[in-house]
Amino acid sequence: MPGRVALVASCRTPFAKSGEVFKDLTALDLAKVAVRELIERSEVDPKLIGTLVMGQVVPSIKAPNLARETGLGALLPKGVPAYTINRACASSNQAIADVASAILLGHVEVGIAGGAESLSSVPILHSKGMTNALMAASKAKGVGAQIAAFTRVRPKDFIPETPAIAEPSTGLSMGQSAKDNGISRAEQDEIAFRSHHNAAKARDDGRLGREIAPVHVAPKYGATVITDGLIRADTSMEALAKLKPVFDRRFGSVTAGNASPLTDGAAAVLLMSEERAKSLGYTPLAYIKSWAVAAVDPAWQLLMGPALAIPMALDRAGLTLGDMDLIEMHEAFGAQVASNIQALESDAFAKERLGRTSRVGMVDRSRLNVCGSSIAIGHPFGATGARITGSLGHEMTRRNSKFGLISVCAQGGMGFAMVLER
Ligand SMILES: CC(C)(COP(=O)(O)OP(=O)(O)OC[C@H]1O[C@@H](n2cnc3c(N)ncnc32)[C@H](O)[C@@H]1OP(=O)(O)O)[C@@H](O)C(=O)NCCC(=O)NCCS
């Protein structure tokens, strides 16, 4: 076994609200920027890269294997195999776990993992009625038969189908399923408030900037984006309290302020075996100590996977929540973060759901999402895991921390957790 897996470097694009500055770019455009800049900044010899794995949740029908197209367009030798995976919002966490597994198996020594999402350019499909007519017309012989193929098309068939955030199994969207578990609106807003203020501080003192590659916006190249576009340094508890609920408009507490926004962006990390990183003279940001994936019944609670995955990853690392110097918990919604923390801190949850005698531990809020997280920075589904992992590695290095924890909730009731060490 080649020892530990080193997190050597990370790089991402700025994150922008979908439909705004990156609206004319695809996920592939953004992924190429992140991977190319990662290679340039880390000065890794591309010939050493043995694999590229990327996450994407809403793939393009033109380039469904985002990773391969990214590799071919981003300075990688043509012989580097690449594949794309989908574990919903934890897709690039899974990409990192896949590359780490390949390193631990000794299959590769160096790999890139990441992910990208453009919610500005999701595939919009014809309805089934229109698709049937188009298929029949393409097979019809003669103009008359082609025209006849369209006679059964009804007005409703002209309505296109867009990708749904709704769960296929329950029909509910994440926002509708973000049960508050008794979490007050004020607590949800407080999480959003801290996310924006921590992110604004990290942006202003350069901590976020060091991870970001500028994007020169094609096709006109009239703008260069160098900073995240969604952080609101001026948000206040009063302003957040005024926002109306969005999903359940009557009884809900999820608002545009305490939910992660629909976002475009890409992120990537460079991983190596410890041995190879040392022989090349790198000082890794951190090492991967353990990881775990878990799932709950989405009809019970869609966003509680982290409360199961976190204790699994901690047990595998032989560590406790109290050992974690920093905690990065992806913020799908303020309610989801608070609900998972509530579960980790609950003896009853530990007994009923985890088969443990007592709670997993207390979450020290001063160690949580210290550079902000997805509510403020944004959440391009496929890229978030790589953003969080890179960001935690940088912050652990800056603070000389020993251990850091990552958790991400994902569609289908899944949760991912990883422990980093230095
Ligand atoms: C919640 C959601 C529907 C809101 O979308 P939206 O309406 O486009 O949101 P906006 O950014 O336009 O915000 C709406 C309003 O709230 C205001 N607002 C948002 N955040 C705010 C903040 N922190 N402070 C003050 N005002 C805020 C905006 O300024 C805007 O005000 P306006 O209408 O006067 O311009 C959308 O972001 C969403 O679907 N998020 C969830 C995504 C999801 O499910 N992800 C999967 C989870 S893993």
Q: How does this structure look, described?
A:
- The structure is a single chain.
- The chain has 422 residues and is α+β, with helices and mostly antiparallel strands.
- It is built from 14 helices and twelve strands.
- The mean pLDDT is 94.
- A hairpin with a 3-residue loop joins strand 11 and strand 12 (414-421).
- Helix 3 (91-104) packs across helix 14 (384-399) and helix 7 (185-204) packs across helix 11 (334-344).
- The chain binds coenzyme A.
- Coenzyme A is lined by residues 89, 165, 174-175, 192, 196, 232, 235, 239-240, 243, 246, 256-257, 259-262, 332.
Number of strands: 12
Mean pLDDT: 94
Largest sheet: 10 strands, mixed
Integer-rounded radius of gyration? 22 Å
DSSP strand (E) fraction?
Answer: 15-25%
Shape type: globular
Structural class: alpha+beta
The residue fraction in helices comes out at 25-40%
Order of helices and strands: EEHEHEHEHHHHEEHEHEHEHHHHEE
Count every helix, treating DSSP H or I runs of 4 or more residues as helices. Answer: 14
What ligands are attached or bound here? Answer: coenzyme A
Sequence stretches where pLDDT stays below 50 over 5 or more residues: none
Quote the distance from N terminus to C terminus.
Answer: 19 Å
